[in-house]
Every structure is written in C-alpha cells, then in structure tokens.
Design brief:
By secondary structure, this protein is α+β, with helices and mostly antiparallel strands. It folds into 2 domains: about 20-85, Winged helix-like DNA-binding domain superfamily/Winged helix DNA-binding domain (Arc Repressor Mutant, subunit A), CATH 1.10.10.10; about 95-265, Beta-Lactamase. The chain is about 40% helix and about 15% strand. It contains 10 helices and 8 strands. The protein has helices at about 20-35, 45-50, 55-65, 85, 95-115, 155-165, 165-170, 190-200, 245-250, 250-265, and strands spanning about 70, 80, 115-120, 125-135, 150, 205, 215-220, 230-235. The strands form 2 sheets. Strands 5-4-3-8-7-6 form a 6-stranded antiparallel β-sheet, with helices on both faces. It has a two-stranded antiparallel sheet with strand order 1-2. α1 (about 20-35) packs across α2, α2 crosses α3 and α5 packs antiparallel against α10. It comes from Alicyclobacillus fastidiosus.
Length: about 270
C-alpha cells in the first residue's frame, strides 16, 4: 500500500523561524510523494496530497522531469522516480531492485541462448535498457544500457505499443516514423497489423529494423496489477542470431518474462 501524508499534516509546513524558498519546498514535497508511491501516481493525487493547485504541481513536476528526477509512466501517465533520482542517493532505486530480482533469470537465459540479454523499461515514448548481460563471443552487441531507443523499430518498443490504449497508439502515429534501415517499418497500417500479431503471440521481433546487423526478440514483464513495467530481450548479430533462431527461442524468452513477473510479486 502506498504511504500517504495525512491531510492534517501539511507537508509544506515548516518549523517556525526556518528559512524557506517556497518553490523548492513544494518541489521536494512532490519528489518525496513520488518516491513513497509504489506505483506511478497521478498529478491530481500529487497536488491534493501536497496541498497545492494542479497548475503549480504541473509546473514543478515539469521542472523535476526536465532534470530526470521524475518521469511519466507511458501507460498510466502517472509520475514515478526518474533515473537521475537514483544517482543522488545510495538507496536502491526501483530500477535497481528490478534488475536485482531479474538477474538470476537473465543469467540463465544468457547461458542458454549464448546471446546478449537485456532488461529494459519504458521511457516516455521510447525504451531504455537498465541491465545487460553479454555473451562470451568476441562479436556481440554494443552496450545499450541507458541508451533510449525508439518504439517502432525495436522488439521491446513494439511490445510497448501493443500494450498501449488505442488512443495513445493513434497519437504515436501522428508523427512520422524514422526509417533507421531498409527494413524499418514506417507505414502505420502495416505496423498496426504487426501489433495485432504481437498481442496474439506474446512476444515481438525486430529483424534488422534498428540496425541491419542486429536482430532481437522481447517478451513483456508485468507487475502484480498486470501493468507492463519492463521487457526481457535476447539480441545478437544477424549473421548468427537469425530470425529462425529468434523464433526458436521465443517460448524460452516468454517463460523467462513470466518468471521475472512472478518474482516481482513476492
């Protein structure tokens, strides 16, 4: 259950005589409220608990978001701690906790597939890897940790699109899609057909769509409430990790995603 600040305990109230900068006080209160919430918290709830109006809350949260201290969840639009918040404290961040829980399953999958295994999370209208295990091969993928990648040409990105509400998917397709390679799908109608297939199969492929020399497969990780929070991926050089090979290990990748999802419920 989320921790709450009681309504009769104004979090903005300071001890008498303490110097204060009101905007800084309010921003810190919002940051604390976000950190105490186990799930992305809506702006209306934040404004109410911080005893400030919604417009003020939005301006302060926008500033915190600009500095990476908070970020909006792509699915719920609620606010959660950003990557920069974890860099300011020795306390284990939510992403670090996720990585720790997933690590044993990631290592097992890496040993089985002998390819790069990545754990990624949504990042606004993109995805970012928070953990990566590389294979023993001399030819392997670059380090993608902390690199924000697009949705339409990555396997985990397409999984996110497949899980978004219809209105948000339509909004995403309002903008032109960048053609990263000759295989990148930029036709919204064709990509929507592929999203239907992804929903049916429970996994997504990227075959030379982000980089012509790389292929990948991803499966979704859900929290206890059934909310998509992360992705497990296996990727490798196209000459070795072919589309057939990716499909061959699909059920293993999906199984690993389920195991991680279950571990997060404990």
């Amino acid at each position: 259950m989320d921790k709450r600040i009681d309504s009769d305990e104004n979090p903005l109230k300071l001890k008498q005589g303490e110097p204060t900068v009101q905007a800084v006080d309010r921003a810190i209160v919002l940051l604390k409220l976000v950190s105490m919430s186990e799930h992305p918290i809506p702006i209306n709830d934040l404004a109410k608990q911080a005893h400030i109006n919604r417009t003020t809350a939005w301006r302060l949260l926008s500033t915190l978001e600009h500095h990476g201290l908070v970020e909006r969840d792509a699915l719920t639009k609620g606010y959660r701690l950003g990557l920069a918040a974890g860099q300011l404290t020795s306390v284990t961040s939510s992403n670090e906790l996720l990585s720790l829980r997933a690590r044993p399953m990631m290592e097992k999958l890496a040993e089985t597939t002998q390819e790069t295994v990545m754990l990624s999370v949504p990042k606004n209208f993109g995805v970012v890897a928070i953990s990566q295990i590389d294979p023993p091969h001399s030819v392997r993928l670059i380090d993608y940790v902390d690199v924000v990648l697009p949705l339409h040409c990555t396997s985990n990105g397409k999984l996110l699109l497949a899980n978004l509400p219809k209105a948000e998917v339509e909004h995403f397709f309002d903008r032109p899609l960048e053609k990263r390679t000759t295989r990148t799908m930029t036709d919204p109608l064709e990509l929507k057909k592929q999203l239907n297939t992804i929903r049916k199969n429970g996994f997504a492929l990227s075959i030379g769509e982000l980089d012509e020399s790389e292929n990948g497969i991803s499966a979704p990780i859900y929290d206890a409430n059934g909310v998509l929070i992360a992705f497990i991926s296996v990727s490798g050089p196209a000459f070795r990790f072919t589309e057939d090979r990716a499909i061959q290990i699909a059920q293993n990748v999906v199984k690993t995603a389920v195991e991680i999802s279950n571990a997060l419920k404990q």
